[in-house]
Amino acid sequence: MELRPGYKLSEVGVIPEDWTTRALGDVGESLIGLTYKPEDTADHGTLVLRASNIKEGALRFDDNVYVKKTNIPERIMVRPGDVLICVRNGSRDLIGKTALLDERTVGMTFGAFMAVFRSPAGRYVNYLFQSDILRRQIHEHLGATINQITNKSLNSFLIPLPPTEAEQRAIAAALGDVDAVLAGLDRMIAKKRDLKQAAVRQLLAGRTRLPDFNGEWEVKRLGELGIFLKGKGVKKDDARTGNLPCIRYGELYTHHNDYIRSFHSWISPAVAGTATRVKQGDLLFAGSGETKDEIGKCAAYADGFDAYAGGDIVILRLSSAHPLFMGYYCNTPPVNAQKASKGQGDAVVHISAAALSSVLVRLPSYPEQAAIAAVLSDMDAELSTLEARREKTRALKQGMMQELLAGRTRLVPTGIVFA
Which residues, at least 6 apart from 245, have a Cβ–Cβ distance to it below 8 Å? Predict the structure, then answer.
């Protein structure tokens, strides 16, 4: 490998010549958390930080466990600047997930499946845990079957270290600025989602009316609004055989909310010949599911070109209702409750076209349906824009980590030097 001037090959990859490679145990200490019994837990007391308190590198406090112990050793009471690390979990993907602890965690401890790394370089090390530099070492130490990092392994992990604390702080601060942007976007997305859910509840129940609409809503059965068809002819192995768009029933649960925005399966003309063609304005219902509560999830097909529906999809070809309005409306709690009551089966739940045709809906005039659908779709568009910005920012952060944590881009008091 030919190295650029000023760089050297180290155990963790190519780094600047003035950087060193150190074991985590040489730059701080790793502590294993508190072991407690179920009878030690309580509704209040000392909060025990666990894997569920880490989400995408940030702290969350919506799934808390407390213990009533009063003799917890001081050294495993967490401190701001500690790095909380998941070291054991049933899910391998969670091993090595970290969060930097702040002032909110004063007075808390952490559980036995967690560790804390305590060092003046904690903020810098936290970003290393999010990078390939430590992710690779974690994967190597997990082995084929063991979902655990030992304290010995943790202390042995090698990290690249800039020559001064000032440079370490500068790297952490630059990445922290991006995290602040991500946190701001998360707050905006959460607020927009809450606003949309409130609008769905109010507008689709007729509790809030849009300007210039005041007529009575009419109760009908779904079967009065069009004709029902059945999807068919697309197996799992067919979903990547061509370039014709297809919707499979499982994707109604995993990818499509209220209306079809994009495609995730593409079939060949030969497969399409045996599948059911869907048209603009069709409603698609999942005909199979794991529980009665989710059976019959619905999405409207609003695009103007042909696509195809696989088996276990029930299609309602509308003739007298607004498709986008119905896509939203058919996923509301009153409609979901009716679908759940009509689901058949235990291990796998099914709902038929006949059962769906008897579902009662309460509808405003077509113009009011269109106006409500426009309001909700505009809110969805705002959410999609924010979510796209968040994904771009996440990608920017990943690129910055690759540059900064390997020293390919150096931060100095006068600005950024590109090596």
Answer: 263, 265, 266, 305, 307, 308
Cα dist from 392 to 25, 103, 129, 135, 386, whole Å: 35, 29, 21, 22, 10
Q: Using 50, 70 and 90 to split pLDDT, how confident is the model at 336?
A: very high
Give the C-alpha distances (Å, rounded to integers) separating 262 from 196, 251, 255, 327: 21, 11, 9, 15
Reported as a single tens digit per residue, the pLDDT across 236-293 is 888 889 999 999 999 999 999 999 999 999 999 999 998 999 999 999 999 999 999 9
Give pTM, 2 decimals: 0.85
Residues with Cβ within 8 Å of residue 25, at least 6 apart in sequence = 154, 155, 156
For 297-316, write each residue's pLDDT tens digit: 999 998 888 899 998 999 99
Q: At which residue do the structure tokens 């500068």 appear?
A: 170
Distance in angstroms (rounded) separating the CA atoms of residues 391 and 396: 9
Query: What is the percent of the chain where pLDDT is above 70?
Result: 97
| C-alpha 45: how far from chain center | 31
Q: Note whether 31 and 116 are within 8 A (CB).
A: yes
Q: What is the DSSP letter of 217?
A: P
Residues written for the chain: 419
Domains of the chain: 7-162 (3.90.220.20), 164-215+365-409 (1.10.287.1120), 218-363 (3.90.220.20)
